[in-house]
Amino acid sequence: MSDVCIVGAGIHPFGRTEGLDGMDQGVYAVKQALADTGIAWEDVEFAFGGSSASGAADTMVSQLGLTGIQFINVSNGCATGGSALNAAASAIKSGEYELGMAVGFDKHPRGAFNADPAAYGLPNWYGEAGYMLTTQFFGAKIMRYLHENGLSTEALGRVSEKAFRNGAKTEHAWRRSEVDLETIMNAPLISDPLNKYMFCSPAEGAVALILASEKKAKELGGPMIRLKTSVMRTRPPGSFEVFAASIDNERGGTATELAAKAAFEQAGMGPEDIDVAQLQDTESGAEIMHMAENGFCPHGDQEKWLIEGRTEINGALPVNTDGGCLACGEPIGASGLRQVYENVIQLRGTAGEHQVPGDPKTAYTQVYGAPGVAAVTILQR
Amino acid sequence: MGAQPIADNLFTDDRMTALVGARNKQTGQIFFPLPLTPNDNIEPIALATRGTVWTYTVQRFPPKTPYAGPADPMNFKPYVVAYVSLPGQTMVESRLTGVEPEDVNIGMEVEFTAIPLDPDAPADQQIMIHAFQPV
Questions:
Q1: Domain count along chain B
Q2: For the whole model, what pTM was predicted?
């Protein structure tokens, strides 16, 4: 089987862009990725793409060119981008194609995601009585996690502080101002223990990645960034997911743990081999839980890691070097691919102000979302 | 007409003394609420009325639709949402009542009750939802 390489990457800056819809931002990212690769749209043999709220990705051919390309739409909730990448990589590994694209984009209205109980198989009373809020789930989940693992709410604040510090250095980030820990800790609560600086917001943005077989990548002559693995998993029994009117007394594992384990096995690596990681941080607590669920540190050690600065850009394991979802916002279809984009520029050494020092060779991404899905990638230069 | 439950098949009886859960006859798994569509493998079961708080959060801002309770931003009263562990059954997502947010603790013992969605509504028009309160 051919190794799969990422030979080009493009991004439309995250945040709010008046006058451009989600699809326009997707096209912008694709054009940038093509230029980055040094190819034309006509050279792209196939594409997988998706958005959650901005339409069917394949219709972007009307803006890019009617080349007759195979273009498959992906709709997989928060794992849409990761699933598109996964499918594109499989198409190349199979030997059927040499050069293809994964693209994700979105543009969401302001404010928390509004959800309809019926879409989740729930009775109307669940929404009427005031349970249909993702923010409640995140608050309740991290409340338990902090309690079980002896972590303080200040750990949550430290994650946010780091996110805004990194976002301030990142061109594609949305929130580009630092916020100090004291300001963060004194902000109004949204869903205890999480406050307004600890949640990411729905946003806008787009990412496109060009993938190639090893042979094709060598021909193109750019830096060889290998996609060592791309894994997507769904939840095991006893996980704790959003919009659950009940959960089992007997607790189980998580989709992230399954995806991480499979990814490390497939890549023939362990957590200790990773130089930089982008972990899902829908809210500050998610980054804390995911540090452990992905195997980077034992449960309960996260606060110590944060205080010691081990996940800072110049730390032992830099985490969310572009500020993550907290600083970039979350356009659902693009979010997972943003993590991979960030790792591509980190491995190329072109991340500028937020570049991880020491010539990183391996990079990890993990996205997690409703209703209990996780996608992991490992890149190697 | 007095106070009415927010939905059919939510409480075990007119006095709203317990919640109706669901039991999978094959696996024995108990969950809440009863599925919307009937299923031969699922039977209704009365859920326990005493349990402990497994985790909780506080809804600090007025929810958007489909929320049907009082949502005026000026007068909104934050409410506690908990998962209450019912021994041998399941953990039920439920409001807590009779306790201020800052006094809630994980492990706290609580018992079942029903509360009005809008306490300021006239008594004969009240819509009742499930809740647990400290023992």
A1: 1
A2: 0.96
